[in-house]
Amino acid sequence: MQTHLIRCFGAHPGSGNVAMVIEDGPATPAERQVFAAAQACSACVFLDAGEVMEADFYYPHTRSPLCLHATLAAAHVLFERGGPTVLTTAMRGQLLPLMQTAQGMFVSVRRQAVAPIGVDAALAVHLLGAPALQLAASPLLSSVGSPKLLIAVRDRAALHALQPPLARIVDWGKTHGVNGCYVYCQTGEREYEGRNFNHLDPALEDHATGVAAGALSAWLGHGLTLYQGAALGNPCRIDTVFDRDTVLVGGATYNVH
């Protein structure tokens, strides 16, 4: 078994969301989940050789159809040795074209259909446990492979004051097939800051959520820069490029030494 630790979406070389890339690792989903739960990183991706290399994603608590920072980690490993330049996801067969630019690693994703679930402001503030919260826009569901409930708040103060009942969010997400809530605010022209809530443990709050950046860019219909993790001591930056229904999501990647 070969393992590689990669920092992804780092705002500088010492920061970034760490993912582990595993080659020739455990074979079954159950074994992979046990392995992922034992690692000191936010996500693992198991690579399996085939006609198109397959990527199987795991958080410490669950298997996932897509994790973009782990995809960037895989791209970093693969580009260091010259390819391949496309992956397919294990759970849903989603093709993930990869590319390397001067800004870092990028993955191409497409806007996905979401289930017709009714969402409104009352549901959003209920899930966040903040009945007095003033939203900046109506909440909505969007997906580039892992659906998110996107909730816009007015400013950073509102964003960072949130202490939601995580079990409520997780239970609602499991019932409706939605991978948690992503709460964000606009901080500048096409610049945003966000927080992701899809874990039961507050200590596992994500430092950078690529699928949320992609989902937000797909909904807004333009590229953006999304900042995350600074309040957790790990500043991250995610950049997107929008072209019709396709979104490039990427950022800097670094080997963990």
What does this structure look like?
With 257 residues, this protein is α+β, with helices and mostly antiparallel strands. It folds into 2 domains: 2-108, Diaminopimelate Epimerase, Chain A, domain 1 (Roll), CATH 3.10.310.10; 121-244, Diaminopimelate Epimerase, Chain A, domain 1, CATH 3.10.310. Helices cover 23% and strands 35% of the residues. A hairpin with a 5-residue loop joins strand 6 and strand 7. It is globular. The model has no long low-confidence stretch (mean pLDDT 94).
Give the beta-strand count.
16
In total, the number of domains comes to 2
Per CATH, the superfamily of the largest domain is Diaminopimelate Epimerase, Chain A, domain 1
| Terminal residue distance | 18 Å
Largest sheet: 16 strands, mixed
Briefly note the structural class of the backbone: alpha+beta
| Number of helices, counting only DSSP H or I runs of 4 residues or more | 6
The CATH class of the largest domain is identified as Alpha Beta
**Shape from CA axes?**
globular
Strand content: 35-45%
CATH topology group of the largest domain: Diaminopimelate Epimerase, Chain A, domain 1
The CATH level-2 architecture of the largest domain is identified as Roll
Helix content: 10-25%
Average pLDDT: 94
**What pattern of helices and strands is seen along the backbone?**
EEHEEEHEEEHEEHHEEHEEEE
- Low-confidence runs: none
